[in-house]
Design a protein that fits this description.
This protein has 365 residues and is an alpha+beta fold. The protein contains 10 helices and 15 strands. The strands form 3 sheets. Strands 5, 6, 7, 8, 9, 10, 11, 12 and 15 form a 9-stranded mixed β-sheet that branches. Strands 1-2-3-4 form a 4-stranded antiparallel β-sheet. The termini are far apart.
Amino acid sequence: MRFTDQFLDDLRERVSISDVVGTRVTWERSKTRPQRGDYWGCCPFHGESRPSFHCEDKKGRYHCFGCGASGNHFKFFMDLDGVTFPRAVEIVASLAGVSLPGSEETADEKRERMKREADRARRNVQKEADDRREQERKAESVRSIWEGGVAIAGTLAETYLRTRSIELADFPAGMAWMPSLRFHSRLKLGTERHPALIGGVQSKSRKLVAVWRIFLGPDGKAISDKEGKKVKLGFGPATGGAVRLGPVTETLRLTEGIETGLGVMLLTKPNASTWATLSTSGMMNFEIPEGVKRLEIYADGDRHRLNNKTGDLMEPPGIVAAKKLQERARQEGVEAVVHPSPEPDDWLDVWVQRKKDEQRISHYR
């Protein structure tokens, strides 16, 4: 059966790509922003424990940064279930409550369609109300966590930064720790409470919207999970915002991690501010404030990976995210350049090596 472009476009308008994919994928609440049509979850095409599968309603597309799978409403079912294109159209049409061309809708089918549409409308109303309540609850929790923090000077948070070769003495004379960084003595992690370095995430309008937490042990070192990775968790809708390590400047330097941002500050001249977007998704969705004319994006040097489906070499996620932001910035009239760090290091590693070299040179003078 052939379908007109108008019919296919109508289906895509009636049912969002997130509704289609959502029949098989559970969205990650901490990264997903339904109000913006921006969804993240674990990829249904390959096994993973951390969400790298992105779905964007505005574009009507999905993409996995892990295996490279991508497509639209119909391709999703064709690739996942191995069905034909006509069958995929039939499935999407059913979700949209639309009859296929050439088929006359019976009275029973009409009643069933109207029932589905009414149920969908009720679910949408309930979902919007639930989302509002959840946003209000998170906003209050974010404020409570932030207000419970103190300046990091003399705390375990400063000790932690010292373990990463970041010391206040390395910055220009007279400089103090950034007010966007605080120390909290007892934050909940699972069933326990631990000290943490917290970063305040501000939106484009400077509103505090989330906090970033790096959990610490009694010795000031970061707590690690079972895989040996540092336990760092966001709380609140951080996408689009950043931890501001300085004021708005015409040139803005961006990194993913807070520590990497501090490393870039130490490596560069103090003529521009550095902000941390916290993740690849945060980098891609960063909202550029008014007054910024140039972005310098210091991308993480993640390792290149093979596409599990094609065997092709893929660009590292950090580079992909940086280039996506670069493209969008240029569309908005903002100059943007990408500085990839040496693979597999990040820019903090570059600072650490420079500091060691300077100390060795100083020792022999």
